[in-house]
Specification:
globular, 11 strands, mainly beta, 118 residues
């Protein structure tokens, strides 16, 4: 049972106090773009209302579901993308266009925004 990890179904924007600011549901999706909604572009996870919106690109990163796992990829953002892995608690800076496999409990750093995957 421990081998079969629970599937990530939500992305949660955390506040500085670790409370939920916003929640997005990934259930039934195969992809989700993280960024800022500026009208003509439609992002799935809209951080335009987040405290550090100015550090978020219009299209910052993308989540893709493939082979039973979620992956995240930096779309060439200026401020980059990091992942804090639940397994070892370390923060990894992601290279552009290199997908990183995600697990439940991982935390994405988009600009200075923290997105918890659960």
């Amino acid at each position: 049972e421990s081998e079969k990890k629970r599937r990530i179904t939500e992305v949660v924007l955390l506040s500085e106090e670790d409370t939920e600011r916003m929640v997005w549901n990934l259930y039934g999706r195969t992809a989700a773009v993280i960024g800022r909604d500026v009208g003509e572009n439609q992002v799935d996870i809209d951080l335009s209302g987040s405290p550090y919106a100015s550090m978020v690109e219009i299209e910052h990163a993308v989540l893709n579901f493939s082979g039973g796992n979620w992956y995240v990829e930096d779309l060439g953002s200026v401020n980059g993308l990091s992942v804090k892995k639940a397994g070892d608690g370390r923060i990894y800076q992601l290279s552009q266009d290199v997908p990183c496999r995600l697990e439940q409990g991982d935390c994405l750093y988009v600009g200075m925004n923290r997105l918890l995957l659960r």
